[in-house]
Amino acid sequence: MLSAFSVEHCPPSWWNTVRHQRGIVSAIAWNTQVDESGLDVERAVQAAPEARLVHVTPAHQAPTGAVLALPRRQHLLDWASATGAWVFEDDYDSEYRYAGRPIPALHGLDVHGQVLHVASFGKTMFPGLRLGYLVLPTRLVERFAAARANVDRFPSVLHQAAMAGFLSDGHYARHLRRMRLLYASRYEALRESLHQHASDLIELPAVPAGLETVVWLPDGLDDSAAANRLAEKGIRVEPISKSRVHRAGRPGLVLGFAAWDPSAMDKAVKVMSGLLRAML
């Protein structure tokens, strides 16, 4: 059983779920700060020096999109090695990075076996596949296999075999390359539309990655009210305030772009721009 653990700044719904899983994990949880360089490791260590596990999404923090900077990755690994704590690396959206060189996964930098690397095929393939995987230190494999058997004794062998063949034959790598090109073009279309119609209203972070992005709004604008008004017009976005345990902070909207045709996206941005201007 864990005695304490720390997680990145996360949505209240997830946070409340974590805090109340006392039957599974006996723990005190700390919700730690995220900035443009990802998890603030120094603040996290100071806030929870006795933490036994840290949950982190270094490749693409949700919902800000921040990538955990390399010095912070090393700091986190050094702390885990020194204290014997575990780092739970949620490899969220790492496959979809559209600019710059990839940053190595925490697991690839870990020389002491303190990282538990978890990922899913739910976004790169399709959610109904319901397949994920864990990359574990050898000494933990037997324990995790036993725990997995107690949770679900019958994962789909057919789905696993099909996915394994898809991987080994090189189809998955080709599929990812095609999807990266497609989603990169749609991200660029969103960026151009925002620049054309709302450059004086919003700030788009320079994080071309993932399947959605956050846009920051002018101070004082109610992002929840903006999201509700957009929903009335058939445009669904998420207010950034919904992802905070404490609602105070800079307003923003999380915009999905991966499933949008560029022309439809441009129309939606025009509507959003007019609505935001009317709210100022």
TrEMBL record:
One of its GO terms (molecular function) is transaminase activity. Keywords: Aminotransferase, Transferase. It holds the Pfam family Aminotran_1_2. Gene3D superfamilies: Type I PLP-dependent aspartate aminotransferase-like (Major domain). Residues 40-270 form the Aminotransferase class I/classII large domain. Transmembrane segments: none annotated. InterPro entries: Aminotransferase_I/II_large, HTH_trans_reg/aminotransferase, PyrdxlP-dep_Trfase, PyrdxlP-dep_Trfase_major. PANTHER family: HTH-TYPE TRANSCRIPTIONAL REGULATORY PROTEIN GABR. This is PLP-dependent aminotransferase family protein. It comes from Ideonella dechloratans.
